[in-house]
Design brief:
By secondary structure, this protein is an alpha/beta fold. The protein has helices at 7-21, 26-36, 84-96, 110-115, 161-166, 179-188, 199-207, 218-227, 256-269, 271-280; strands spanning 59-65, 74-75, 81-82, 98-104, 121-122, 137-152, 172-175, 193-196, 213-217, 232-249. The protein has two domains: 7-143 and 245-280, Periplasmic binding protein-like II (D-Maltodextrin-Binding Protein, domain 2, 3-Layer(aba) Sandwich); 145-242, 3-Layer(aba) Sandwich (D-Maltodextrin-Binding Protein, domain 2). Strand 2 (74-75) and strand 3 form a beta hairpin. Helix 2 (26-36) packs across helix 6 (179-188).
Length: 282
């Protein structure tokens, strides 16, 4: 389990994260990649014992989502929020007797905001890393994913990540200040990476031909393929594998244990797998 961090340490590391995410020389990016991609492991929700689930007395909890990251969160044609985050958030609150208040939040700067307690829980398909664990706390891991190249379905210049990597003229997009950006820098270098504010823009750059592929999580790649039928394809194999996703809390949050209890109960009765299959394996 994550440990309580002192406020001084939170502020210090948050400042370092902002500095690192600002770009810089290729050497700095490589060092950043070595730091953030040295992923430790957090306990899987399926490995926790399902015990008593506490009652939060109807408390309103603010859930941060981006609304631009399918299948985790996005807005449908009517402007309603849909995705894994919404289904899981409501299911957790139905078990804990809490009221979810989904609030749209920009990805850039979200970890300092979480460290400062601006939101109760961050959803948004967050990868567990040891560096992030210095500023925020995590729930148990609800799914393990990899990272892939997502390209246009008519792409014929490369058929594997190795071929993409070998062609110095090819450029990939991704989202800024994500582990995907770090993976892209490690995979093809900073000069061949174009970072966007969100993955919707990064994928649109692929569809419009401004870039040649996007470095993205496996489950999110499927989400964008569903939103753009027949237009995109995953280039196999994975660039990276075995990344754990977990919910994010402010340091020392008293919500971690209740949420872990709810997730463990959902893993035990099959609800977690049902919702994972619904959104991650359509």
């Amino acid at each position: 389990m994550s440990k309580f961090k002192t406020l001084f340490f939170v502020a210090l590391i948050a400042a370092l994260m902002l500095t690192a995410c600002g770009g810089g020389a290729e050497e700095a990016a490589e060092a950043e990649g070595e730091e953030m991609m040295a992923v430790d492991t957090t306990v899987n929700c399926t490995d926790l014992d399902a015990g008593d689930v506490p009652d939060l007395g109807g408390e309103e909890l603010v859930f941060a989502v981006e609304n631009a990251y399918p299948p985790f969160n996005s807005l449908d044609d009517s402007g309603e929020g849909v995705g894994w985050d919404y289904d899981i958030g409501r299911e957790i609150c139905s078990r804990l007797n809490c009221t979810p208040v989904f609030t749209e939040a920009a990805w850039d700067g979200i970890f300092p905001a979480m460290a400062a307690g601006e939101y109760d829980v961050l959803y948004d398909g967050v990868t567990y890393t040891t560096e992030r664990d210095e500023t925020v706390d995590y729930s148990c891991a609800y799914v393990t994913i990899g990272q892939v190249l997502l390209a246009r379905s008519d792409e014929d210049r490369f058929a594997s990540p190795d071929e993409f990597q070998a062609d110095g003229d090819l450029v990939a997009s991704t989202q800024i200040t994500t582990t995907n950006e770090i993976a892209a820098h490690d995979f093809i270098g900073v000069d061949r990476t174009r970072s966007f504010e969100d993955f919707g823009l990064a994928v649109q750059a692929v569809l419009s031909g401004d870039v040649d592929a996007v470095v993205i999580d496996t489950v999110t790649a499927i989400g964008f393929m569903d939103e753009n039928p027949g237009a995109l394809q995953i280039i196999q194999p994975n660039i990276q594998s075995d990344e754990q996703l977990a919910l994010v809390f402010s340091p020392g949050s008293d919500l971690i244990d209740p949420f872990n209890a709810a997730l463990a109960a959902m893993a035990d009765d099959g609800k977690l797998q049902e919702l994972n299959d619904k959104w991650f394996n359509p």
